[in-house]
Design brief:
Layout: H1 6-23, E1 27-35, E2 38-46, E3 49-58, H2 72-89, E4 96-105, E5 110-117
Parallel strand pairs: 3-4
Antiparallel strand pairs: 1-2, 2-3, 4-5
Length: about 120
């Protein structure tokens, strides 16, 4: 059995999520975008919307569904990071934004929740 660090495992399943989003028509702008508020896994654009996506993987449900891991505190951190991103890269231009979550399960299935949560300021 191969051992993967949490980071290697995360990257592996983020790759799965990125491929999925590209097939849905997203253009990937940034991956693992770090800022003073933390990290945003995937930032993409689809049509005229900037999408901030959190990717969560769980091998099994022992620690709950991966979607449950995107709690209020994590939502708030992602929201602040998104605001920081927009202030740096959109330079005052207005753009529609949304927050998605992609859950990847140990059995290979994937669940994508668009507009998973609202901005948490």
């Amino acid at each position: 059995m191969e051992y993967y660090s949490k980071r290697q495992t995360g990257t592996r399943y983020e790759d799965v999520a990125v491929s999925f989003l590209i097939k849905k028509g997203h253009t990937i702008l940034k991956r693992n975008y770090r800022n003073p508020y933390g990290e945003i896994d995937i930032i993409s654009r689809i049509d005229d919307t900037i999408v901030f996506t959190e990717c969560k993987y769980r091998q099994n449900n022992r620690y709950g569904d991966p979607l449950e891991a995107v709690n209020y505190i994590k939502q708030r951190r992602i929201s602040k990071g998104a605001l920081y991103f927009c202030s740096r890269f959109l330079k005052g231009r207005e753009a529609a934004c949304r927050f998605d979550v992609v859950a990847v399960y140990g059995n290979g299935t994937l669940r994508h929740i668009e507009n998973a949560f609202d901005f948490r300021g």
